[in-house]
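FAQ: What does a multi-protein file look like?

Like this. Sequence, then tokens, then the next protein.
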Amino acid sequence: MSTLNLTLVLFVGLLLVLVFVLFMAGLAYVTHRHPRLEKPLTVAFGGGGVLVAVVVGLVAVVALTT
């Protein structure tokens, strides 16, 4: 793998992690600030879905760059 491809993969991975952290912080804020909206199962599925999306995106980037 060339240096450019490795740099691109690491950069995209970093961006995906940052988006994931921001999304999870948003979920935490909503469930803390508005307790009546808190549905733990819904929040868990939302967080899990985002985690799966991050992993799939990272795998896709790696697959496209190799």
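And here is the next protein:
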Amino acid sequence: MIEFPDGMHEYVTTPVKRVLRMAGREVFYIETINSRYRLEVRNREDSVAENTG
């Protein structure tokens, strides 16, 4: 399950084939049988500042 800052959720229901991480960053690429997701992990302060500015 992926939770977004606005409280919405996305469920990954197909098997995950692989997870790749960009070196030195909190960015992940998640590949399933039929989809690809880019997941960037940020701290709450950065997210709030970005959404208000």
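Q: Is there any per-entry metadata?
A: Some entries carry free-text notes. For the entry above: The longest strand covers residues 16-21.
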